[in-house]
Design goal:
The complex is a heterodimer of chains A (275) and B (264). Chain A has 275 residues and is mainly alpha-helical. Chain A is built from ten helices and no strands. In chain A, helix 3 runs antiparallel to helix 8, helix 3 crosses helix 9 and helix 5 crosses helix 6. The longest helix of chain A is centred in the last third of the chain and has 37 residues. The chains are: A mainly alpha (275), B alpha/beta (264).
Chain lengths: 275, 264
């Protein structure tokens, strides 16, 4: 927190810069890199079976082979494309309905019970129906991901709007805000931090559901790579695919979190001191 | 400027907050409303602000009956209630509706300067101390130049020094815009330091127990012995009457008015 001297003449109060982002990344890498090295050593010493549990070097080699054959990028892009559209569709629907039920009591009474009931259906249960309706190509996959993304986004946004401080809403009343101004100038900004958490939760589920969607029968994508590895008995391919899921999931969440952090710079949350 | 005639307020849960309130406040007056907690003083302010409707009687501001929040009235609450996602300047402009940008910026800058925060226009609310945040709230309430400024225990969460500083700012604002000021407080000394009229609310439902004129010049008040007498007057009207029925009889005949003119 910047100190505010009464004689401060600057028009902008500077925040101390986020402490060493690179250092934080390095600390975060210690555990996975250490585990990988230990695993590699154990495999080299012959203490674990490399046939079922291939060491990191072999997984990297598999990735290299896939890249050399020019198919790695195809698989990654196919999966990214599905997650992207599924996330966009699910987040848009969740935002629209979550905002509506948060703001209008009538919409809440009308829609919320149905949505809650639909939520208790395991999303995978939609798969046969989606295949019957939309065939086996991209549409059912994107829709399944969208269903997964929808619920956390909807629930967190509706809940966040419902819990906006009544005292701030009253300030809006003093300035004679209509519903639209109230939503735009008070409810949505106040709900934003929780909403971003909901979006991140939705994206996480999106990555979960893309695997399920690609198990449904795909000829491309990281989920297909998993199935292919199992069918052809190559655990290195499965682990390579899992590794890519971890990396892509982490990167996409990082991007969303960074975007969110920019939007909620104003937030007065817990900021631990650096040790 | 403000008038309440036969105003009573009963909340939907059956709680009687106010009864038989008759009060007329002339333009430019500084009126303090004091009373113990639960006597309905905040309710009185919310009725004038248009945030609540009277169960019976009429409340009018500048000759118009109040039927909701109006642009003639600015409100400062007990908490600053700033929007944490807006800078100080944007918070102050929050009170300006759809005014053109340049004009809004000019008015906001002036209001911020008037509360002594000229260097902090681009600060976030979380970077402000309690007193500074409340000054921003005052700037937001007066940026649209309301004829009436209502303050609901605005300084109760602040320490003594910050409170004095804010008293000074409030009196400067009074000299600048000449608004009608209604200040709800439970601090008798604050009421006597700022107001030219102290309205004492007491009882449940709250009724006007006394209406006291303070005619001492403000600069002389801090040391004037007469202030102690006024303080006693306020305190004795706050104390519950020994015989409840007798007290109620006195109230229903109208507010007691004891004006104590003092010359220094």
């Amino acid at each position: 927190m910047a100190s505010l001297a009464p004689d401060a003449t600057a028009t902008e109060i500077r925040e101390p810069r986020a402490p060493g982002a690179l250092g934080a990344v390095a600390v975060g890498l210690i555990l996975p890199v250490g585990l990988a090295l230990g695993w590699e050593v154990l495999a080299a010493l012959g203490l674990v079976s490399t046939r079922l549990l291939p060491p990191p070097s072999q997984i990297l080699k598999t990735l290299g082979d896939l890249a050399a054959r020019g198919v790695l990028l195809d698989h990654v892009l196919a999966t990214l494309w599905r997650v992207w559209w599924g996330f966009l569709l699910g987040a848009a629907a969740g935002t629209a309905l979550g905002a509506a039920t948060g703001v209008w009591p009538l919409a809440r009474r009308l829609l919320d019970p149905t949505i809650q009931a639909l939520r208790s259906i395991p999303s995978i249960a939609w798969v046969p129906l989606f295949i019957l309706w939309f065939g086996i190509f991209e549409t059912p996959k994107v829709l399944l991901i969208a269903v997964g993304v929808f619920f956390p986004v909807y629930l967190t946004l509706a809940g966040a709007i419902a819990s906006v401080d009544r005292k701030l809403v009253e300030v809006g009343r003093i300035y004679r805000f209509g519903t639209w101004d109230l939503v735009r100038r008070i409810l949505l900004p106040a709900a934003l931090p929780t909403y971003i958490t909901g979006l991140r939760g939705g994206l996480g589920l999106g990555w979960m559901f893309v695997v399920a969607a690609e198990f449904m029968g795909a000829s491309k994508g990281l989920g297909y790579l998993l199935v292919d590895g199992q069918m052809t008995g190559r655990p290195a391919t499965i682990l390579a695919s899992i590794l890519l899921f971890a990396v892509l999931g982490k990167l996409s969440d990082l991007a969303l979190a960074a975007l969110g952090a920019r939007l909620v710079r104003w937030q007065d949350g817990f900021r631990p001191e650096r040790a | 400027m403000l008038s309440l005639e036969g105003v009573a307020k009963r909340y939907p849960n059956g709680l009687d907050a106010l009864a038989g309130i008759d009060l007329a406040i002339e333009p430019g007056a500084v009126v303090a409303v004091v009373g113990a907690s639960g006597c309905g003083k905040s309710t009185l302010l919310r009725l004038i602000a248009g945030l609540e409707r009277a169960t019976s009687g009429t409340v009018s501001v500048a000759g118009h009956p109040v039927d909701g929040p109006g642009e003639d009235v600015g409100v400062v609450f007990q908490e600053p209630r700033l929007m944490p996602w807006l800078t100080v300047e944007a918070n102050v402009r929050f009170g300006l509706g759809r005014l053109p940008g340049a004009e809004a910026a000019r008015l906001a800058a002036e209001a911020i300067a008037r509360v002594g925060l000229a260097g902090f226009a681009r600060a976030w609310p979380r970077q402000l101390s309690g007193g500074m945040a409340q000054r921003v709230a005052i700037a937001r309430a007066l940026v649209a130049r309301p004829k009436v400024l209502l303050l609901d225990e605005p300084f109760s969460a602040l320490d003594t020094f910050t409170r004095r500083d804010l008293h000074r700012h409030l009196l400067e604002i009074r000299d600048w815009l000449q608004p009608t000021l209604v200040l709800v407080t439970h601090d008798i000394d604050e009421a006597l330091a700022l107001a030219d009229r102290v309205v004492v609310l007491a009882g449940r439902p709250g009724r006007i127990a006394a209406d006291i004129a303070v005619t001492l010049p403000r600069a002389a008040r801090a040391k004037a012995p007469e202030l102690l007498r006024l303080r006693e007057t306020v305190l004795s009207s706050l104390a519950p009457p020994r015989d409840a029925s007798a007290g109620r009889g006195a109230d229903s005949s109208g507010a007691r008015v004891s004006a104590i003119p003092v010359t220094v």
